[in-house]
Design a protein that fits this description.
eight-stranded mixed β-sheet; two-stranded antiparallel ribbon; 12 strands; about 25% helix
């Protein structure tokens, strides 16, 4: 079994996925650095555990990311990107920066390389494939007006694949029915990057997604790829 990492830096710790990952990290005894743009908007984060600290930071800003990492002494076990994937209205999608996620990948991978730690990202279901096509190309599964955003996500995924071999990265992608109302089961299963449609009828909880993230930090089994996280049917 791999050594338990001493610290985990979680960008986007104030979102649903981020909070679930913080909670599971604390449950396992990790020290957690919660990174959000405005700590004043997330007063409850520091109350999640004695080993939780909150830092202001912006994953889109290389200098901000470097500052956060420099402020964490000692060993870092992993850096996590749990930034909410997209919340804009349809009118704001046109002109979405196609290199937005490429920048996030570069900033996160730089920490992973300099601090010799694992980088884990929470992915987007539209990046899973259906046969030879990406799910976002399915008009029913992903509306056309969001495609500029999906294309940016795909560029980000490809940016991970372009990273040097010494960067240990993983994108863990939940299926379309990730839900805050789903019951936590304490179980999940991993797949590859091809959507298993037999598992899309059941909702996946954020708590079970967080289990997958922490398992892949504590005892990594999948490296340098996108892997789907499914509920156990």
């Amino acid at each position: 079994m791999a050594d338990i990492p001493t610290k985990i830096i979680i960008f986007g710790a104030g979102g649903r996925a981020g909070k679930a990952i913080v909670t599971e990290s604390v449950r396992r005894g990790h020290a957690v650095v919660c990174v959000v743009r405005d700590p004043d908007r997330h007063p409850g984060l520091a109350e999640l555990g004695e080993e939780v600290t909150v830092a202001a930071g912006d994953l889109t800003d290389a200098a901000s990311v470097a500052s956060v990492a420099a402020g964490v002494p000692g060993e870092i076990g992993a850096v996590v990107n749990a930034v909410a994937p997209f919340t804009a209205t349809p009118d704001s999608v046109d002109g979405f920066d196609p290199d937005y996620y490429v920048g996030l990948v570069e900033n996160l991978s730089r920490i992973a390389k300099v601090r010799d730690c694992r980088a884990v990202e929470v992915g987007l279901f539209a990046m899973l494939r259906t046969g030879e096509l990406r799910l976002y190309q399915d008009e029913v599964a992903f509306p056309a007006y969001l495609r500029p955003f999906a294309v940016a996500r795909l560029r980000g995924l490809n940016a991970w694949r372009d990273q040097a071999r010494d960067v240990d990265w993983l994108v863990l992608t939940p299926p379309p029915r990730l839900s805050p109302d789903a019951r936590a089961t304490g179980r999940y299963r991993l797949g590859d990057d091809v959507l298993d449609t037999s598992s899309t009828a059941i909702r996946l909880s954020y708590a079970d997604l967080a289990l997958a993230v922490l398992d892949q930090i504590d005892t990594p089994t999948v490296h340098r790829c996108q892997a789907a996280v499914y509920p156990v049917v």
